[in-house]
Specification:
heterodimer, A: 535 residues, alpha/beta, Aspartate Aminotransferase, domain 2, seven-stranded mixed beta sheet, 12 strands, 33% helix, B: 382 residues, 2 domains, five-stranded parallel beta sheet, five-stranded mixed beta sheet, disordered N terminus, transferase (chain B), kinase activity (chain B), AcoX-like (chain B), NAD(+)/NADH kinase (chain B)
């Protein structure tokens, strides 16, 4: 591409005159397959693999007992294997698929090293069965144990478990441990309150509520975090736990965190450190040294394991020795003869089956070994440096402001910006800018978990892995789109132009009569709408 | 509340009423607190530019892009028709029966004519004063939506910006029968002395639900306030012990408690409830004090008025220092939608009852309930 512009499907110029260092814009257009749903494909009698019948001498007849056999076959599409493969490959081509530049803040989008995928695909990991004898999976159990030791080193906690299938599941696990802890002391009926903050990840209040607690959310005050006075006003003998991120999603580190923990402890509550924003402080702080009783790491973001559509998640939950007896079993313990899985009699039960998503633990273990203690600290420092570089450049873009811009303290691994003034001037919103940026091969940025606090928010996170060129290109695209919003707002407001589909009306997601998560619901609700329209 | 309004569904095809208060907002940039009455002359003397027409056109341009051809009934001249020229509009302009500069009376005339013509939605550009004039006439018979253009905008009827107003209106007129509405408070500064004027509630409007224009992607919960408040109303109703007097303050938030009890709220006044029965609706200070003498065990349930976070002393003056004394500071429950709290800057609630002795125990950090089992803590200042 050397003419400085790219062309949409209809030949119109849709990426304008954005210049990269070499004077050209990246030409990008998503693949458009106009792919029907899999349920609308196939034909009767088409098959993929036809499994052989029971082996000779296996008893003959139907291998399934009559009681578990279907009387009518399932209503599934009948499609040939290559058709199915092509269908899903096409769908994958219609996404940006982590080949654009993704600075999706609060999610720490990292490169997932291929070597870790190869390790997790080895038979010793991929082909084991959870009901295998411990003696036959000693290597895997050793990895779990050694990784547990490494996370203890990073946090100061007494033991980690990997059963939770994500960060929110680990937060829920903490709420369950909190319940068990207070129950063991005969105080559960009285301790009903979980305290969190308006800028903590929403999974903290949500999981506390799911576990039956009342939730008290402290508002952010002028210093960029809730005040100690507000905390003192709500802490009481009803306090069950504090659940908090630090730094929060605005990149602001609460410097009074030790005092917070002390106040909650004095009242008899537990303190949980949601380490979703660990990237800026990896190897620099330990949750236990700050006084926390438990913490959570997200292996699928911080520890180089695929996240989102890239793979299943793991919320590694760790706690102090005092809380260990409440952890969900089985635990992996080292014995004189090796490693074994052992139930935890007082544990809260399962939050997921077996040991959790073990292939992801193997990848995270491999990632952490490769990084080393010094490497992980350096990565944290680079991610803070990269964010502060981004911040300096972004604040030079007319119309970009920073949340709580009166604070002089540096933000850590991300900063919450605002396009509020720009939107007021142009009518172009952060969502419009986000949509338009995807036309340049840049993944949609993250706005905010709490979009009602900072107007027209956006939160990029540079991390330690993206190159200077990538970060600069991302900023150039943002600056270009914002300028375009001033001169031709319609171009930005009607974006995206180079994606598979144009704008999607999200209102159906708020309308139970239209949303559909299954084929059956989709058919039923579409028919109802058609009937209603015909009346 | 998300239930359908009691009125019959709007006549088809969907149509839109448009009223522009051409002088709204002019006072703001020249340091006035509004453009009502004599303030207009002062604004003009200080060289104010027209704000509302410009912002109305931004909203209308967006609407035309998204809902081309929607029938529009516009107020006359600078109050509507003038801004709907050019291609893509199907406009009928109302005649004007008055002469001279436009005033609030023109706004009310136009609003009345629009209700009578059966418009599906009334889109207006102005501030709190305009909202008050319109809602005074249309009540909850027709949903209204404000293009934020005034100096004062404490009411809950405004979109987040002109384009957002155009988008929400377009979505609404696309299918008014299925579109959802919520109740919103109309709040305006009251008092003759502008410097000391404070927000008061003047009425309740129906407003199209704009939640999906807030944000896509990971967070969909920003507009879930209504469901939270319905659940909170039920929780409080369930908690009410026998023989305890409940004084339910004004506003749409506290009205959810009345609704949970199956009682019609007076909404702009204070209602008294005992054992699920309504003892008094829209009670005066004297009535409240008399009830409190008979039932000393009492809880006062308060909502928050407008964007300035007034808890007491604005629109609920019947809750006097004497009433507060009788109830006791420990027996006050504060309810607020999360959205309303988010709009507070700084996150502080205010009381102005003029009696330090009665209000001192209420000030400081206090718990504010935002949903079932959900609360926050806010600083209360007198």
């Amino acid at each position: 591409m050397n003419d400085g512009m790219s062309h949409g499907v209809n030949g119109t110029n849709t990426t304008g005159g954005l210049n990269r260092a070499d004077g050209t814009a990246r030409r990008y257009h998503a693949a458009v397959w106009d792919e029907p749903l899999i349920m609308e494909q196939g034909a009767p009698g088409r098959r993929g693999t036809v499994p052989p019948g029971p082996m000779e001498g296996a008893g003959g007849g139907d291998p399934l007992p009559a009681g578990v056999r279907r009387t009518t076959p399932p209503d599934l599409p009948e499609a040939a294997e290559p058709d199915v493969l092509r269908h899903y490959l096409r769908l994958s081509q219609q996404t940006m698929g982590m080949v654009g530049i993704s600075l999706f803040g609060t999610c720490t989008m990292k490169y997932n090293p291929r070597v870790n995928e190869l390790l997790a695909a080895r038979d010793q990991v991929a082909e084991v069965h959870p009901h295998q004898d411990d003696g036959s999976i000693q290597g895997l159990l050793e990895i779990v144990h050694r990784f547990d030791l490494m996370l203890r080193e990073l946090s100061g906690m007494g033991r980690f478990v990997f059963q939770a299938g994500g960060g929110a599941a680990a937060a829920y696990l903490h709420a369950c441990v909190t319940r068990a802890y207070h129950e063991s002391r005969g105080e559960l009926a009285q301790r009903r309150d979980v305290i969190t903050t308006a800028q903590a990840h929403p999974c903290n209040p949500a999981t506390a509520a799911a576990a039956g607690f009342n939730v008290i959310t402290l508002p952010v005050e002028r210093d960029g975090h809730p005040s100690l006075e507000a905390l003192r006003a709500v802490v009481s003998d009803r306090t069950a736990s504090l659940m908090i991120n630090n730094p929060d999603d605005m990149g602001i580190y609460n410097p009074h965190i030790k005092q917070w923990v002390d106040i909650v402890h004095e009242a008899g509550g537990l303190c949980f450190y949601d380490h979703a924003n660990f990237n800026g402080v990896m190897g620099r702080i330990k949750a236990a040294e700050l006084g926390f009783d438990a913490c959570m790491f997200m292996l699928h973001k911080t520890f180089g394991v695929p996240k989102g559509g890239g793979g299943p998640a793991v919320g590694a939950y760790g706690c102090t020795p005092e809380l260990e007896r409440f952890l969900p079993g089985p635990l992996v313990v080292q014995t004189d003869s090796g490693y074994e899985r052992r139930e935890n009699p007082e544990g809260i039960g399962r939050v997921r089956e077996f040991l959790g998503n073990l292939p992801q633990v193997v990848k995270a273990y491999s990632w952490l070994l490769a990084m080393g203690a010094d490497g992980i600290r350096e990565a944290a420092d680079i991610s803070v440096l990269a964010n502060n570089y981004m911040e300096a450049r972004l604040l030079a873009v007319p119309g970009v402001t920073k949340s709580f811009d009166h604070l002089t303290l540096r933000r850590l691994e991300m900063t919450r910006f605002s396009l509020g003034e720009y939107t007021e001037q142009t009518g172009v919103t952060a969502v419009d800018v986000q949509n338009r940026m995807t036309d340049f091969g840049v993944d949609a940025f993250w706005l905010s978990h709490e979009p009602w606090i900072v107007p027209e928010p956006f939160t990029p996170e540079a991390g330690e892995g993206w190159s200077l060129e990538d970060i600069d290109y991302w900023i150039d695209v943002l600056a270009y789109v914002m300028e375009e919003g001033r001169t031709s707002p319609a171009m930005v407001k009607s974006a995206p132009h180079n994606q598979v589909v144009a704008q999607i009306d999200g209102s159906s997601l708020d309308d139970p009569s239209r949303w559909a998560t299954t084929w059956r619901a989709y058919q039923r609700k579409n028919a109802q709408r058609a009937n209603a329209a015909g009346r | 509340m998300t239930e359908a309004p009691p009125q019959a569904p709007p006549a088809r095809p969907a149509s839109l009423g448009v009223i522009v208060n051409p002088i709204a907002g002019m006072g703001g940039r020249v340091g006035l607190h509004g453009t009502d009455g004599p303030a207009l002359e002062a604004a003009l003397r200080r060289g104010a530019d027209a704000v509302a027409p410009y912002r109305a056109r931004r909203a209308l341009n967006r609407l035309r892009e998204l809902a081309p051809g929607v029938p529009v009934l516009a107020a006359a001249g600078p109050m509507g028709g003038d801004h709907l020229t050019g291609e893509g509009w199907t406009v009928r302009t109302l005649p004007r029966s008055r002469t001279g500069p436009t005033t609030a009376a023109d706004t009310r005339d136009a609003a009345r004519a629009m209700v009578e013509s059966g418009v599906s939605l009334l889109l207006f550009a102005g501030g709190d004063g305009t909202a008050r004039d319109i809602v005074d006439v249309v009540g909850t018979a027709v949903p209204v939506l404000g293009v934020p253009s005034g100096v004062k905008m404490h009411s809950g009827v405004f979109a987040t910006g002109p384009e957002a107003a155009g988008e929400t209106a377009a979505r609404y007129v696309a299918d008014p029968a299925r579109a959802r509405c919520a109740d919103a408070e109309v709040v305006d500064l009251a008092g003759d002395d502008l410097a000391s004027a404070a927000p008061r509630m003047f009425g309740i409007a129906r407003v199209p639900d704009a939640r999906s224009s807030l944000q896509r992607a990971k967070a969909f919960t920003a507009g879930a306030d209504d469901a939270d408040l319905v659940a909170l109303g039920r929780e409080i109703a369930r908690e009410m012990p026998a023989d305890r007097l409940y004084l339910l303050g004004p506003g749409t938030t506290v009205a959810h408690v009345n609704a949970a009890l199956g009682l019609q709220a007076s909404r702009l006044g204070v209602d008294a409830v005992l054992d699920g029965r309504l003892l008094a609706a829209d009670a005066s200070e004297a009535e409240l004090l008399s009830l409190l003498r008979r039932h000393p065990a009492a809880t006062l349930v308060l909502g928050v008025v407008g964007g300035q976070g007034f808890l007491l002393g604005r629109g609920n003056q019947q809750i006097s220092a004497a009433v507060l004394d009788a109830v006791g500071a420990g027996n006050i429950e504060i309810l607020a939608a999360r959205g309303k709290i988010a709009a507070l800057d700084p996150p502080t609630l205010r009381i102005d009852v003029g009696d330090e002795h009665a209000t001192a125990p209420i000030t400081g950090y206090r718990k504010v309930r935002t949903g079932r089992g959900r609360s926050t803590v806010l600083r209360i200042v007198a």
